[in-house]
Amino acid sequence: MRVELKDSGVIFNEEEHTYKLGDKYLSGITGVLHRHLFPDEFDGISESVLNHAAQYGSSVHKSIENFESQWINDGSQEVADYIQIIKDYNLSHEISEYTITDGENYASNIDKVYRISDDTFDLADLKTYGIMSPDKLEKAKWQLSIYAMMFEKQNPKAKVDRLFVIHIRNKQKSDGSYDHISELIEVKRIPSEVCKELLEADYKGEKFYNPYDMPLEISSQEDSIIELIQQKTFIEEQLSAIKSNILTQMERLDARSWVGKQMRLTRKLPTTRSTFDLKKFQSEHLDIDYAPYFKTSNVSGSLTITI
Prior knowledge:
Radius of gyration: 28 Å
Order of helices and strands: EEEHHHEEEHEEHHHEEH
Helix content: 25-40%
Structural class: alpha+beta
CATH topology of the largest domain: Trna Endonuclease, Chain: A, domain 1
Strand order of the largest sheet: 4-5-6-7-8
CATH class of the largest domain: Alpha Beta
CATH architecture of the largest domain: 3-Layer(aba) Sandwich
């Protein structure tokens, strides 16, 4: 049976950006995320820059919404990019700016809802950032995960499949070139139980303990880890300088090997290396099936520490 999406009953005032259910005003999700997870998001950014970004984002949203609802193409690069993404990912638009609520305290608008089948949908958030930083992507993941939870509560017979960010931008820079971005980024859904805990903590005015935060036993070692990394960097730089000096002397004397009391120094002679350009070879031999010649092996996971 085909699921038709339910009306939330929430009145959204676009100008004031408020949500009202009956006589009660509901809180938006963006404020929840700012209060508990991303309080420093706009630190150091001037109000004029924020306003300019908001105006640009609103205009792009409106242009794309006009295309979806009225088939009006304003000829902008942003709309053209959106149309291409829709084609590339075979997305079937269901509704834009779909208002959802938990029915009690919170409400928000989902930028885009796409239908997959009679009862399954994809949810998307349209972003016009200049850079999709890890923090911005993490915020979008939380936002969309909460949307998915409320969407399924409002529509009990519906299921959410994928969550993704549609990242579109075409802004002229000071040098005259354009900051052109057009991409779809899928994000992994945060469990509804965790999202509920966040909303409950916010409603009660309590601190939300993010289960995805670095554990205390790890964060307490940060100073030690940083110190070890700095020591390692210093030692590697010192050793590199010593090796460079030794190699210079051995080359000057044409020495191939030096033996000390505790170590042997061996100089490798300069050589050349040949590599096979697989991509070029494949492009020039499209009739060959390469699958039987590829060997698959497991690669262990690893950890990268950035300071």
